[in-house]
Amino acid sequence: MQLAMIGLGRMGMNMAKRLLAGGHRVVVYNRTPDKTRALAEEGAIAAASLSDAVAKLPQPRVVWLMLPAGPVVDEHLEQLAGLLAPGDIVVEGGNTYYKDDIRRATRLAEKSIRYVDAGVSGGIWGLANGYCLMAGGDKETCAELEPIFTTLAPPEGYLYCGPTGAGHFVKMVHNGIEYGMMQAYGEGFAILEASPYAEGLDYAKVSHLWNQGSVVRSWLLELLENAFAKDEKLAEIRGYVEDSGEGRWTVQQAVESGVAAPVIALSLFKRFQSRDDNAFEDRVLAALRREFGGHLVVPRSQD
Q1: 148 close to 62: Cβ distance less than 8 angstroms
Q2: What is the spatial distance between Cα 31 and Cα 133, in angstroms, rounded to a whole number?
Q3: Active-site residue numbers?
Q4: Distance in angstroms (rounded) separating the CA atoms of residues 187 and 214
Q5: What is the pTM of this model?
């Protein structure tokens, strides 16, 4: 298929590369042109502007946005509303709040432009391993896009979740669960670190051990093994943990729905607390975010 990838950050860049490797024709645009030029050297078609990207696509056009959640998405959609034609498709693949999807889809529907929300998980490892995709929107439109989805995803890694907003809603809850899992690992290793056995424990080996048939085995634990192998006590980073927004939205949704979610709520509040502290468990969380998503960490030297 043919599509434009708008936004070439940590996710968008590698997604475009995976699509190129899968035989798709990919037009790429980024506000800073260096990444656009780099992908052009790998076979992508470089666009100098949003309007240029649209002009390089045949109808019905497919434009995939991989931008930071918030106003920048609305700015691009407002431009696209004036550039696209009836029947064209916009896929919003960033970490967007599902209620924003509903508002945006309604706005584009006034011009008969179709809107699909796609929750994407896979971080910086997605290029090699594939991306877990959760799609929402018109079912027939999502079916049209399946060649793109199945190229990006590993086997069985794509699911149509329901009408507009469903994809990002499922991804939001996914991230809320992720917060809770990471917090549990952080607390567990903090207990080990505070124990009389800490001196003799190799946390990379403990992480590896727990992935061998244990009920707590996971990809996050594999990544934690990598982090401990690089820095056995995570001494080089500060336990300052950001939140992407989706943890907040999950907790907000739990309140709106009347669902008890104490673990996810506490994990979010612990991230707030981390910004005034440097606890070992927070360094575990910071290291995990760096390993799976390439997120920046605050070096210990900045304390």
Answers
A1: yes
A2: 25
A3: 171, 178
A4: 18
A5: 0.90
Cα 12 from Cα 28, distance rounded (Å): 9
Contact 29, 36 (CB under 8 A): yes
What is the SS3 assignment for the chain?
CEEEEECCCHHHHHHHHHHHHCCCEEEEECCCHHHHHHHHCCCCEECCCHHHHHHCCCCCCEEEECCCCCHHHHHHHHHHHHHCCCCCEEEECCCCCHHHHHHHHHHHHCCCCEEEEEEEECHHHHHHHCCEEEEECCHHHHHHCHHHHHHHCCCCCEEEEECCCHHHHHHHHHHHHHHHHHHHHHHHHHHHHCCCCHHHCCHHHHHHHHCCCCCCCCHHHHHHHHHHHHCCCCCCEECCCCCCCHHHHHHHHHHHHCCCCHHHHHHHHHHHHHCCCCCHHHHHHHHHHHHHHCCCCEEHHHC
> Distance between CA 165 and CA 101 in Å, rounded?
5
Say which residue the tokens 């990809």 belong to: 219
Question: What are the Cα distances from residue 26, in Å, to 16, 47, 129?
Answer: 7, 10, 20
Extract the tokens encoding 180.
């809770």
Listed range (3-17, 82-96, 249-263, 281-295) with the worst mean pLDDT = 281-295
Whole-angstrom distance, CA of residue 178 vs CA of residue 190: 18
Task: Pick the closest to residue 150 from 142, 139, 161 (CA basis).
Answer: 142
Provide the pLDDT confidence category of residue 243 given band limits of 50, 70 and 90.
confident
Asked if residue 277 has pLDDT above 90, the reply is no
